[in-house]
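Our collaborator T.R. sent over the components below with a one-line note: 'Predict the complex.' Nothing else. No constraints on interfaces, no templates requested, no preferences about which chain binds where. So this is a plain run: every listed entity goes in together, and whatever single assembly comes back becomes the starting point for the next discussion.
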Amino acid sequence: MSGLAVTGGARAALAALRLERFALIGAVIGLTIVAATLSPAFLTLGNLRDIFTQAAPLGMVVLAQALIMLVRGIDLSVASVMASAAVLATAFTSTDNADIPLIFGAVLLGGAVIGGINGWLVTRRNVSPLLATLAMMILLQGVRFAYTQGAPSGLLPSGFRWLGTGQIYGIPVNLSVLLILALGLWVMLRYTMLGRAIYIIGGNPRAAELVGLSAQRVTMLCYCLGSMLAGIAGLFLVGFVGTVDNWVGRGYELDSIVAAVIGGVSLAGGSGSIVGALLGVLILVLLSNLVVILGLPVEFQLILKGVIIILATGLYARRMRA
Amino acid sequence: MIGRISPQALVVPLLLLIALTVGAVVNERFLTLGNLRNFTEQLAALGFVSLGQAFVILGGGIDLSIGAIASLAAVLLAGLHGGNEALFIPSLLLVLAGGAAVGAMNGWLTVWLRVHPLIVTLGMASVLSGITLLYAPQPRGSVPFWFEGFAFDSLAGVPLSGLLLGALFLITALVLTRTPFGRRVYAVGGNAEAARLSGLSVKPTIITTYALSGFFAALAGAYYVSRTGVGDPHAGDALTLASLTPVIVGGILLGGGRGGLGGVFLGVLLISLLNNLLNYMNLSTFVQWWCKGW
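Returned assembly:
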């Protein structure tokens, strides 16, 4: 990268990115201070741990959403994939913890297939990502309901409970997994050819083809990885919630897009980072908690989310033009 | 739009024919007048919202707040008058105007913030759902008895809602093909930049398409209220996705600028017929969803 001439424009973009990062961290700190002032119980270790445990599955979905948004996509099927992963897990009707790796394997495989179909529709059939993943969402819903007849068996190894709510040395298990996944993605995006290719393709697919990158293959890979991540998130969410139904993860498609957008991942593709996306999750979770702390009805969370996503995208869109 | 008939244009009518035949074969009650009327009554809500969605998509946008607008319209219509029948008509007008206003706001936000309409309308849907659930955590309210006629009465054997839907389709088709506004919608959806350079008022056109969509969504909400007699906070939830299918099946390109309402009408017929058919074949709702996914 250093071999390329860094133009003034690129430098300005970098500076803007840094400013954005500061703004995000500032928002996290500010919201924490407000929450702590309003409720003394907020800044206790136990409460923070609860918040992180609750937010970790969303974090995993946001990784998926961010990755797909980077290649100019969007995935509305993430929540449906999460629920399908949960139902798939109960299909083993096993209560033996030794089967957990097998279940994860099956979910990863299923995720890869679903993501592959999404990616195939988007890259080869030129279906808009919105439409392709919307269809996938409805299709999975139908398959799920046809299979479970509305009521999944709910048989799961007890180890899932530990994955979803347990701790290692005081750190939530699911948070550790999220951080490992995020680190992996961060390294991939920042230090590998593939990561570079993802940014270039997202920024300008035609230019990417001209320099010999296969936009189709990379985009497809992103959809595959995204659905696999969503599947994992589904399993961890089931572990957190403790019960399986057909709507595990409902609403996570909007939440994941909101968090990624707040975190500065551009819907136009090619710009955004893993750290930003995770900061977006933090801000979203803090805001949701504030609604509770303020004693407002939970419906305000919906209203708040809607207002935030419109304002945040609006703000970023204006800055892009400036 | 008229002119050469492409092979693709024949797919939907063909599917319609197949669905009808299968229906007639599978169940002798399928082709009876009773079921036909039943079918027309079920058709209305989907038809209304598909009309709105068609305008928005033709203009190059997409509206994912339709279901939320319909739900909010339903609870407000059933709840606002508070049992006083004299207040019902004003609240009906208010709700319809409100739907148009919310739609216009969607449009204004997309052109002003230049954010993808997907995000704007998704965000708007979230806000509206929040308001709906704040106002009516459970189904609430009531309607004057006469208003149920909107869903159940018929004129010369044809359900009122079906007549209204047909009339609206005719009027909007005329508006789209015969008026400057209609041509502007196509021009803006086809290439907004070119439309702007040739001096068309792009922004008001886009805002109007969203306002129409909001209006039709509110109308669908009102229709639900007249059918069920109560304002259900989840009445319109399924409509957002449902409104997309006929428009796409009917061949309006997502991205705008091409396609006609005739296709949408056939799309609405086909989807409703499929639902109806699958009911008759004793298939569960689950399979219905599955089929729609294709």
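Summary for T.R.: The first strand of chain B starts at residue 154 and ends at 155.
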